Amino acid sequence: MQYDLGARRHIALTAAMLAALAMADARVAASPLPTADGPLVEIAASQPPQVSLRPTARPVAPSGVAATPLRPRIRPEQQAPAPAEPSVSPAKQRAFEAWIAAFSVRARAEGLSQVTLDRALSGVEFDPKIVQRDGNQSEFVTPIWTYLERAVSDARIQNGKAALRDHAQTLARIEGKYGVDREVVAAVWGMESNYGTFRGERDIIRSLATLAFDGRRGAFFESQLIAALQILQAGDVTPEAMTGSWAGAMGHTQFMPTSYLAYAVDFTGDGKRDIWSDDPADALASTAAYLKRFGWVKDQPWGLEVRLPTGFDYALADRKIIKSAQAWRQLGVTSADGGSLPDHGKGALLLPAGAQGAAFIVYRNFAVIERYNAADAYVIGVGHLSDRLRGTGPIRASWPQDSRPLTYKERRELQQRLTGAGYGTGGADGRIGPKTRAALRAYQLAMGLTPDGYPSLSVLNRLR
At what angle do helices 434-446 and 408-420 cross, to 10 degrees? Predict the structure, then answer.
């Protein structure tokens, strides 16, 4: 499996959907948390990372395994409601068993032993719930302010501070070895599994085999299944203990099997890279190692909330436009409290909800977190949670809560209408990426509108 945040933007990384965050409110005293058994909803305001702020080198994975992000990402329109209970016919199960037999031949060619295959695949059954989860689609997306309210709740902060205290020595050693702030590692842990509370309980082999056989991305999931079997053959975990999310993400910080092979570390020194056990040391160290290998810069923040002056040129809110702190100061950009903008190196201006919402200067570490999950909301969630764990305050700016994100159909319509008006978007796939934002800014400038590149309903209505 090979996918990355630019050309492979159709898949990403996380393991929790916002509906599960709300469910966890009722299940866990203190926190609206994601479960490890459902994909995170991408926020409509997200945009892909730009090369100038991304790590410049992609590490070579061991044993010929391609370096990859951690989890497959589903499109925003795929948020899954609670589905009806599916069933599997005898014919379907027989077809699945035939596929397993053919797959085993391919797996043997990849160096897997018959002993490993027999132990892991004997008696495995097709799981129709998995295919239903993978294919279920929802028309709507969640506003970033709603996402952040749940992702960085008071309870999540409280639980995170407790986790920092409980694992202080381990996190200090990890920070010392990898140079990744302990609060950032803890924030990823909190976002991915509520500090280990929701690691996922599904049989990874069954899930991956089902998706490889009957899912939308068969080749991708077959590569993940091969990797999972390689993990079993290496003896890091037993088939019974290899559990995780429905899409194959595993452990405290939700690694996909190929990413496990490429990046997981044995921090405890017991000869196993154990990201599944109650002891989170290997999982947390693996997360720090992952971030470090993709270019984490010590002592640099992920980003800073800023205040923009009256009359600011919103066309500068583009991830391709990188400026020094001095250059941003000269344009009137200040810190959120109105003070002088600190110098943390060059950064880009991000407006995740357009000109009416919060503004951030984001740095290289923002792009590193994007390797975990490319949605801007997720990165801001991890970054802001890590800041709150350090004791900083909430985001100061207000959000345009009287507006709503465009639906998938509306985003496609926006792209079609922009293209029809002479502002090419490079296609109408419903994803608001750099080309669509550039076309939208050009249209906004031509119409005398604020050129923030934000796909609002008001702009769509004007195009109509």
Answer: 60
- Amino acid code (one letter) for 400: P
Judge contact between 192 and 23, C-beta under 8 A.
no
pLDDT in tens, 155-185: 999 999 999 999 999 999 999 999 999 999 9
What is the pLDDT, as a whole number, of residue 27?
Answer: 35
- Report the C-alpha dihedral over residues 190, 195, 200, 205, rounded to 10 degrees: 90
pLDDT tens track for 360-410 = 999 999 999 999 998 899 999 999 999 999 999 999 999 999 888 999 999
| Length reported for the chain | 464
What's the Cα-to-Cα distance from 424 to each of 44, 47, 222, 433, 442, rounded to whole Å? 20, 17, 36, 12, 10
Q: What tokens appear for 352 in the block? A: 């995740």
User: Following DSSP, what letter does each residue of 41-98 receive, concatenated?
Assistant: PPPTT--PPPGGGS-S--PPPGGGPPP--SS----GGG----PPPP---HHHHHHHHH
Indicate the DSSP class of residue 347: B
Q: Which one-letter amino acid corresponds to residue 160?
A: G
